């Protein structure tokens, strides 16, 4: 494969040694770029046989000008910056790495849920401000037996559901794919409307698609219990942020925790930043040192696999 060239369109990781090692061991070559625009990708990656991609836009215009490209592997799960249909039209295999951070994301969602419901961040901040008084956290309700709603029962949603069940919660779930998701005997499958009405906490684990964009808007937030909490570790645009800000201001729900936002980082005037009952973390749910290394290794291995004529392990599109 010495004549094979794999380009990294962009990558904000401190090192690409893991990818370099995988690609070098396959006797291929790698070039690391810092593309931010369509023009950057066209200029630097036109000679690549395969691409590893993080954020750089891979539009129909870009893909039409990558004559040698046979495979693109996205660092992570979502492929929202890739025109998958255009890739299919041009015979380019799109892949992702859907299984590298299952424990990390499900653990982070649980951590956010406990932080909200036990109000640990509120209390910790109060102590730093000289206020040693548990009563500011009232009410805190016993968690065992409460109902957790899981939206999206793929790998991560199922892992979260299993952990919540083990902690004593009643788990209900909704997946837009009628027969989609894991078959878990302890998860009661319900309609989306039923999940909104019954859940004491809702954790979002579905992909961002046309159908799930702003899935949680005014109507849906008003349908939730006023004592309920909403957790999102999936994609920011699944929640209508303006509606969520209004929901928190007017008490439609008790609180929210977001690891993802529509625009990252959020602008300083984003009203969600002003709500004490809205916890925000910087899109870190995927991260652990082990998951970080696994992501990089699997992305490079998938590109090599396809360029070697083998079937991909993680195809996004079907050629």
From TrEMBL:
UniProt entry keywords in alphabetical sequence: NAD, Oxidoreductase
Domain (D-isomer specific 2-hydroxyacid dehydrogenase catalytic): residue spans on this chain: 21-317
PANTHER family, A to Z: D-ISOMER SPECIFIC 2-HYDROXYACID DEHYDROGENASE CATALYTIC DOMAIN-CONTAINING PROTEIN-RELATED, D-ISOMER SPECIFIC 2-HYDROXYACID DEHYDROGENASE FAMILY PROTEIN (AFU_ORTHOLOGUE AFUA_1G13630)
Species assigned in the record: Brevibacillus reuszeri
Keyword Glycosyltransferase: no
D-isomer specific 2-hydroxyacid dehydrogenase NAD-binding domain span: 110-285
UniProt record similarity statement: Belongs to the D-isomer specific 2-hydroxyacid dehydrogenase family.
Keyword Oxidoreductase: yes
Official protein name in the record: Dehydrogenase
Spans traversing the lipid bilayer: none
SUPFAM superfamilies, per database record: Formate/glycerate dehydrogenase catalytic domain-like, NAD(P)-binding Rossmann-fold domains
């Amino acid at each position: 494969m010495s004549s094979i060239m794999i380009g990294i369109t962009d990558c904000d990781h401190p090192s690409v040694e893991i990818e370099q090692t995988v690609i070098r061991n396959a006797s291929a070559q790698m070039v690391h770029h810092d593309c931010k625009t369509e023009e950057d990708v066209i200029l630097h990656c036109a000679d690549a046989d395969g691409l590893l991609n993080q954020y750089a836009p891979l539009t129909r215009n870009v893909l039409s000008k990558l004559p040698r490209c046979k495979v693109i592997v996205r660092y992570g799960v979502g492929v929202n910056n890739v025109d998958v249909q255009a890739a299919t039209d041009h015979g380019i295999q799109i892949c992702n790495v859907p299984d590298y951070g299952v424990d990390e994301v499900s653990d982070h969602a649980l951590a956010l849920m406990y932080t909200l419901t036990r109000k640990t961040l509120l209390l910790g901040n109060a102590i730093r401000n000289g206020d040693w008084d548990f009563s500011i956290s009232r009410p805190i309700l016993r968690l065992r037996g409460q109902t957790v709603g899981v939206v999206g029962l793929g790998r991560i949603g199922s892992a979260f559901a299993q952990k919540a069940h083990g902690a004593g919660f009643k788990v209900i779930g909704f997946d837009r794919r009628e027969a989609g998701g894991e078959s878990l005997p302890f998860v009661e499958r319900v309609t989306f409307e039923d999940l909104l009405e019954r859940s004491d906490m809702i954790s979002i684990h579905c992909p961002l698609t046309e159908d799930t964009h702003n899935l949680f808007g005014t109507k849906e937030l008003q349908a939730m219990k006023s004592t309920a909490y909403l957790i999102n570790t999936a994609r920011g645009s699944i929640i209508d942020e303006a509606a969520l800000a209004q929901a928190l201001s007017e008490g439609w729900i008790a609180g929210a925790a977001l690891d993802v936002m529509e625009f990252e980082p959020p602008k300083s005037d984003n009203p969600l930043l002003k709500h004490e009952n809205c916890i925000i973390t910087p899109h870190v749910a995927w991260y652990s040192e082990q998951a970080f290394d696994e992501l990089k290794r699997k992305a490079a291995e998938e590109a090599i696999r396809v360029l070697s004529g083998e079937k991909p392990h993680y195809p996004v599109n079907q050629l």
